[in-house]
Amino acid sequence: MTDRLAGLLRHYALRAEVFHTGRFCGNALYDGPRGYIHLLRSGRVEVLSPVHSPMTLTGPSVLLYPRAASHRFVAGEADAPDLVCAGIELGGAAGNPLALALPPVTVLPLEQLPPLERLLALLFEEAAEVHCGRQAAIDRLCELVLIHLLRHLMDEGAAEPGLMAGLADPRLARALSAIHDAPGRDWSLDDLAREAGMSRARFAVAFRETVGSTPGAYLAGWRVNVTCSLLRQGRPVGVIADAVGYANAPALARAFRSRLGCSPTEWAARQRAAGTAQARQKGLPAS
Question: Can you tell me the distance from the alpha carbon of 224 to that of 97, in angstroms, rounded to the nearest whole number?
Answer without folding.
Answer: 11
